[in-house]
User: What shape does this take?
Amino acid sequence: MPQNLAELNLTDAEVATLMGALATIRATLGSRAVSLTPEQRGSLVKMAEGTQPFCEQTVAALEANSASLPAELPVGATAKDLADYKKLAPIYAEYLVVGELLDDTLKALASDVMTNCIVGAAFLKALNKLKPGLDNLLQNLTSIRRRKATKKPVA
Assistant: This one.
């Protein structure tokens, strides 16, 4: 059964706009963005939604008492990090929503293509019985699909 879950018909200008939006994010963050290794990501102490109030209150108390604290405690830098976190978090949340939308759209498009190609290949096979001459093409399509389907996932 043919399928059409998604249909975008993106223009070149729209693709350029989308790529430009991503480039704007990358350029705006620039070298200030941090790239962590998987090991670093796994070993970091994390602040979650539930612990954010603890951090906000602690930063406020540290700032109020900074004169009495050791100089090596980076109170100002911590306050700036928290402020940047609070600015970036809603952008990241929207990025995740858009990313999921893109992921779902790509999956729907890929499913449309694959489903319709499977149906189309069946029609070509039937057509070949009525009007021979597609043997080489059908054999090639079958070998490509088998080869791709049996590929081992990369670990």
Summary: The chain has five helices and no strands. The chain has a mean pLDDT of 92. The longest helix spans residues 75-130. The radius of gyration is 27 Å.
